[in-house]
Design goal:
Layout (H helix, E strand, L loop, with lengths): L2 H16 L4 H6 L5 E8 L3 E2 L3 H11 L4 E4 L6 E2 L4 E8 H31 L6 E3 L9 H10 L13 E3 L1 H7 L2 H11 L6 E5 L2 H9 L4 E5 L3 H7 L8 E5 L7 H5 L5 E3 L2 H4 L6 E7 L5
Parallel strand pairs: 6-11, 7-8, 8-9, 9-10, 10-11
Antiparallel strand pairs: 1-5, 1-12, 2-4, 3-5
Helix pairs in contact: 1-3, 3-4, 4-5
Amino acid sequence: MNNIKLKSMLEEFFIEDLGDGDLSSESVFAAEDKGTFFLIVKEEGIFCGKSVIETAFSLLDPGAEADVHVQDGDRVKEGQLLAKVTGCMRTLLQGERVVLNLIQRMSGIATAANRAVQVTSGSGVRICDTRKTTPGLRMLEKYAVRTGGAYNHRNGLYDAVLLKDNHLSFAGSISSAINKVKQKCGHTVKIEVEVECEEDLKEAVESGADIIMFDNCSPGQIKEWIHHVPPHIVTEASGGITEVNLSEYAHTGVGYISLGYLTHSVKSLDISARVFIHEGAS
């Protein structure tokens, strides 16, 4: 994870939430009041977000001390203590919601990714994410996917070519689109092509695609068509894949399965914050 980028992101999140100040905390507590925060997980899952906890509170209060008891990727259980944070009471309360929002979502994604990895264990397939991430949170969400044991697809539009149905419709044909990409991009750029029928698959292979994505194809269709793909071309399945049918797709012969649900509809892991006020606080 890029810690410089993380700090910048957290600053923006705090600016959004704090505005010109925290009316609640600043009205109740004096600046010198100290306290301790305990972050506790309320359900089993995979934890992710150690850097968020360690970085967030120190941005608000350089004197804050975060003692995180778990590592990213650790399996945690209900009632387990994740971290203890000590600092100004105002700081703890101001950082609470932003930190919880992020680590709950990141841990939920890591948990979902880990479940998918476990479901497909032994098949040889690699689980990866998609670009269906929350705007502004892509770095954190993709990090959470890796924390859960899965892999990242391209990070954005800039680091790989993926010719989807609308690209191909505008271009007129798969071969035309691939040829234009090869004329524009360097040899280090991979070209992935989305196919939905056997004819498109054959054209993509003949035109020199590096990766074939079977999009919204049934497991049966993939098994029937995949023999057209030579060993040097990477294969991927995507679209309409859920936890229910994931295992079936894992045994079609594809090398990768990309899952949008890991980030676009994941359930956050339930984590709470409890506060202990030091003696002598106002």
